[in-house]
Amino acid sequence: MATLLTPGPVPVPPWVQAAMQQPVIHHRTPEFEAFYQSFLGDLRYVFQTSGAVAASLGSGTFGVEMAMYSLFQKGDKIAVLDMGKFSGRWADYGEVLGCEVIRLQKPWGETWQVDELMEKLKPHGQLKGIVVTHSETSTGTIVDLEAIASKLRVAYPEILIVVDAITSVGAMPYYHEAWGIDCTVTASQKALMNPAGLVLFAVSENGRQAMRPNDPGDFQHVENYLTSAEKYSFPFTAPVIPLYGIAAALAYIKKETLPVIWQACHQSAQVFRRGVEEIGGEVFSQYPTDSLTAFKMKDGDIHALKSILEVRYGWKLSGGQGELKGKILRISHMAEAHEGIMQQVLADLKLSQARLRA
Amino acid sequence: MATLLTPGPVPVPPWVQAAMQQPVIHHRTPEFEAFYQSFLGDLRYVFQTSGAVAASLGSGTFGVEMAMYSLFQKGDKIAVLDMGKFSGRWADYGEVLGCEVIRLQKPWGETWQVDELMEKLKPHGQLKGIVVTHSETSTGTIVDLEAIASKLRVAYPEILIVVDAITSVGAMPYYHEAWGIDCTVTASQKALMNPAGLVLFAVSENGRQAMRPNDPGDFQHVENYLTSAEKYSFPFTAPVIPLYGIAAALAYIKKETLPVIWQACHQSAQVFRRGVEEIGGEVFSQYPTDSLTAFKMKDGDIHALKSILEVRYGWKLSGGQGELKGKILRISHMAEAHEGIMQQVLADLKLSQARLRA
């Protein structure tokens, strides 16, 4: 089977699989509480926060929807940076919630610069919140979240900043607390090296205060998970096995240290981008993120190239989504997709091109 | 570690754990489609339906909330049988949705008889839907779902019948299609012998027609999962590893056949109920379900008994929830908690009592 180099899901390392082989414990026990206490401690490190964190079942999509549902209600005026398939989805979901959505669109592959963004927002007056996708996975594009969050906080002291950090936390520098983010969302199947299925939250004290009233039975309300996490417990039946898997990844990241992991991801991205341009490729995004690269190849059928790479050389990459279908390939630099792997893929990409031309 | 005899989560058999060790495949591939096609076929057998079925991430709570959210909207008049912690939660959630909820309460441990139920509903006129908990896990109580669904269908031809079958599908006779249920919900950590984390749906054609408009990005909308399932695909990132685990359980149930599995569960319940009364216990529910037994012991501290059983004899049972906290114990009869295990627990329960009296 081909090695997954898709920008999620990523391959699950054997030591994560081993962690998920532990027997199920009941979630209403002191054993679970001790486990979850340690889990939450490591999660704080990975989010770089001393504040509230929690886990929930869900794909990344549900995680961001949970955050938006908990913080925004019908009639709220919110801005959403819309620069690709995922960031655009959050704008759509804002409309599902009945919010007045200011959709800040950019052509796919471009990004918002902080000053341009602030200018664009000015005529709209006060805002309840903003949703920023730190690393847009459909186009491989980064935004300068630190600068944006900092200016937003000055111009709109009460604004709620929600961040889709699904392909950023654990892959590149991310500081939930220092950057003043109100709700950060990430997911299991990216830099956390786990199967899809869990989402993770960090929430500021202001964010918690601003949440809608929470019915304790409401699965979608983030506050239910945060309140339970204060007692090291879970509001519903805890997904113990997936939590074991994430716990192993969090402990690994803590041991390796974040800077070491961020640097490995950055190095992988650098090597790939340089290499792909040398063989006639082109990085699609003007502001490439480190967790994945979206790229074009100058000549040749992108479908055929993807297929040769997978079938002949054993590397599974992703194609484009939406308007980029059939136009780009996307490769992960997260977790085990390190520099050495990139060198191999580049060599095989060159051979695949030659094969196509022949 | 004590053997889990809690009525969920149940222990995960080694062959389910082995299935979850398979490598992650990408969810946008022919391999995933072939896998999910076979998965859905087996799931139809377990629900006893030829109609639409699908899986989603979630705990059981989220599954029922998804069903209610998809089918009922603000202002809809719905009835909810409220006979315990879980069925009561669905009434609460109906109110979160803004429905006009007719809360059909019974003291915990009692059940609704079909004629009494129909009488009670009469003055309320037309109903959009009803939520029935087939087997109430907090009290160990069953309702005669077949009879209730059949009379409801005659009196209210258009009514949408939503069933919480979380501790019934795979444990006792359940016929989604033949009984005319519109939406059945079950969860992974009960009779399906898996870790918590997945919910499963069977939906009638009428149910699908009656659903609210579905935004394709809405994680909570059941129709998104059903539409994708028609193409053997998943609307969001598919939780491949948990799906592998469920696939193994579904294939096992199909091979063993449902009647054999239902009978084993029934037999386990019969043996335990008879045995516990012989040693001075009392079955709590007046209409006990087969998937678990809630029981009292005439004398002695229930906390101390639970603790001795766990620490001294290695059997982990559940206590009571809500108003039954400290008053009852609950034991599972699902999956591997078969008759032979019940005999052992009964012997140890007798010894534990003696130890407490000494």
List the helices and strands and how they pair.
Two copies of one chain form a homodimer.
Chain A: E1 3-4, H1 14-19, H2 30-47, E2 52-57, H3 60-71, E3 77-82, H4 85-96, E4 100-105, H5 114-121, E5 129-133, E6 135-136, E7 141-142, H6 145-155, E8 160-164, E9 183-187, E10 198-203, H7 205-209, H8 222-230, H9 240-256, H10 258-278, E11 281-283, E12 292-297, H11 302-311, E13 315-316, E14 318-319, E15 329-332, H12 339-357
Parallel strand pairs in A: 1-13, 3-4, 3-5, 5-8, 8-9
Antiparallel strand pairs in A: 2-10, 6-7, 9-10, 11-12, 12-15, 14-15
Helix pairs in contact in A: 2-9, 3-4, 10-12, 11-12
Describe this structure in words.
The structure is a homodimer of 358-residue chains. In chain A, helix 3 (60-71) runs parallel beside helix 4 and helix 11 (302-311) crosses helix 12. In chain A, strand 6 and strand 7 (141-142) form a beta hairpin. The first copy, chain A, has helices at 14-19, 30-47, 60-71, 85-96, 114-121, 145-155, 205-209, 222-230, 240-256, 258-278, 302-311, 339-357; strands at 3-4, 52-57, 77-82, 100-105, 129-133, 135-136, 141-142, 160-164, 183-187, 198-203, 281-283, 292-297, 315-316, 318-319, 329-332. Chain A has 358 residues and is an alpha/beta fold. At the A-B interface, helix 3, helix 4 and helix 9 of A face helix 3, helix 4 and helix 9 of B.
